[in-house]
Prior knowledge:
Elements: E1 4-6, H1 7-17, E2 22-25, H2 32-38, E3 44-47, H3 51-65, E4 69-73, H4 77-92, E5 96-102, H5 118-122, E6 128-131, H6 138-150, E7 156-162, H7 163-167, E8 169-171, H8 192-204, E9 208-212, H9 219-232, E10 236-238, H10 253-257, E11 262-266, E12 287-292, H11 295-305, E13 309-314, H12 317-327, H13 336-347, H14 366-379, E14 384-387, E15 390-394
Helix pairs in contact: 1-2, 1-6, 3-4, 8-12, 9-12
Amino acid sequence: MANALRGADVLARTLERAGLTTVFTLSGNHIMAVFDAALGTGLRLIHVRHEGAAVHMADAWARLTGQCGIAMVTGGPGHANAVGALVTAQAAESPLVLLSGHAATAELGRGAFQELRQADMAAPATKASWTARSAAELGQDLARAVRIATSGRPGPVHLSLPSDVLDELVDDDPSLWPQPAEFSPDAQPLPAAAAEAALTALTAAERPLILAGPALCTAPGRSLLARLEAATGAPAIGMESPRGLNDPALGAFAETVARADLILLLAKPHDFTLRFAEPPFVDAACRLIVFDPDPALIERAAREKGARLIHRAVADPAAAAETLIARSAGKRRAPEGWRGEVEAALRYRPEAWRTLEGAGGGRLHPIEMCRAIAAVLEKHPDAVLVCDGGEIGQWA
């Protein structure tokens, strides 16, 4: 094999070709071939001290950049340490791929080094989870993983890398290298009929709300929501915290949600964060529209809400928002008084927060730290402050 490559070389060069050059990792025996293969490439390996940290950092990277995050850890206990962090990324809808080393396939069932059913372990916390089978397919495996992670409702994907697959030699051939389009997410546009039905309902409502999920809580997503609100007149609010209606960042918003007569859920799950849209948190007469990339979540909302769910469609949230904006021209806008009421509720903060202090002795009241952070956030409105794997505010 004059132009032979190892599976590890195929993986490293595919990452480089795809522009996924930042990899959060903790080294270990199963993946040392990838570390060797990274030499001479444009890959930037950021070494951490715990496998869970590699996943959390890839999660944060995805939220901050909009790019699919990449984490790489060793197999066995290294993989087990990383799996718990996938749950945070799953809840936050962060697109990332966890690459885990794995016992050699030829040794499975024979007492292989740190043998573990890794794909099965990661499956409940991922959109897809599987084990690579050959060096020749590694590039396609990676493209598939990235495409799944970024398509529809974004989320984590896991791919295990057996050590013998990483060491396997293959001829350098065009078939090894996936095309750029193979990494791209599958598109799910909003049907025109669904957009028109939603806009008709929005214009007829007196107190409509558009609630968006984490996928539109990035800096570009919030900008898109602002455009959607300007086009339709309906307040468009991103909700990403597991605190839901109790999120302090939303001020007194829960009180206005209880008065809404129509709610459009734009990739925002109908779940506990909305108190399942039941009274007294949402009015019993309030109607719902659900546009979501996940058909299962649409069906769940239909089971829960019955006749209150008046329109539904499978669609990517950004594509749906753009379609609604494009088709809203010339249509009646939501009442300005309602928008002002919602804006005031979102801005509300208890007056006591301005002056609360610790009891002394060098101890801070938590609100003192928040005031200091808020001063920075006001100067930097477009970036994101991430704490313990969860976004807690916009930071430009």
